[in-house]
Every structure is written in structure tokens, then in C-alpha cells.
Amino acid sequence: VGLLTxxxxxxxxxxxxxxxxxxxxxxxxxxxxxxxxxxGCMNAIALITPEFGLGLTxxxxxxxxxxxxxxxxxxxxxxxxxxxxxxxxxxxxxxxMGGVALAVVPLFESTxxxxxxxxxxxxxxxxxxxxxxxxxSDRQHEKRSGNTGPTPRTRVPSR
Length: 159
Fold this sequence. Notes:
The structure is a single chain. By secondary structure, the chain is mainly alpha-helical. 79% of the residues lie in helices and 0% in strands. It is globular, with a radius of gyration of 17 Å. The relative contact order is 0.16. The model is unreliable at 148-156 (pLDDT under 50).
């Protein structure tokens, strides 16, 4: 379990900075939909067979989705609601989901066996992507269409 989690978080971490640039280009909602879809697909693939290598690869690739989705969700909340409280609530709910998984996944273990974590993640992804598709687009992104954000050169004053 630790190796599966480590594989996911290594890719999760690696995608956050490039993911921020992608959000600046195409919008938080679009990136969130793509990230959640990737998570769902990788968990569905992991359901094929109980091979550790397949599970490890699927978890590692799904980490790209979790990294993108985490920052896209935060940006979406900032753009749509804008309050520090809303962003704090978003972050708190995200961190609490690990605890919820520890409580919920074992409930399905008797019927799903080793598939329990992958099946519950795939089902939650389907629910989440449906919610994002039905949500309004990121108004802030539409306003700044074409803006890729500040570059190091624009942040450092010239002499």
C-alpha cells in the first residue's frame, strides 16, 4: 500500500507546476475534467487483473490526474468564489478524503476484494467528472484568454 501511495504522490508532485501553466492556458474547469478522467481511467485499468505491476503503473499515472485536479480545483474555487474561506474549505475537504477512503474502502472489501480501492476511486471519479461537466465555466479564464501568466522576466524589475 505504501509503494502504491508513493508512486501516486511522486507523479502528483511532479505535475503541479506544469499543471499551473496548463490551467493558465486552458482553464481550471477543463484541466479538472481531464485530470479526473485520467484518474477514473487508470483506476478502471487497474481493475483488469490483480497484477501488482499493473496496479503500481495505474496508480503512478493517476498521480498526474490527482496533481492536476488538486490545483485545478483550487483555482476553480478561487475564480468562482474568491474567498479565502472557500479555498480553505476546499483544501480541508481534499485532505479529509484520505481519511474517508480509509473508512469507506474496507466496507466494499468483502464484495470487491482487491478491487475495492480501484473500484471506489473509479466510481468517485465518474461522479466528480459529471459534476464538473455540469458546472459553469471558469469566468476568470475566459476574461484572460491567451494569458499564460507572469513569467520570471515580468516579475523581476529591469534596471
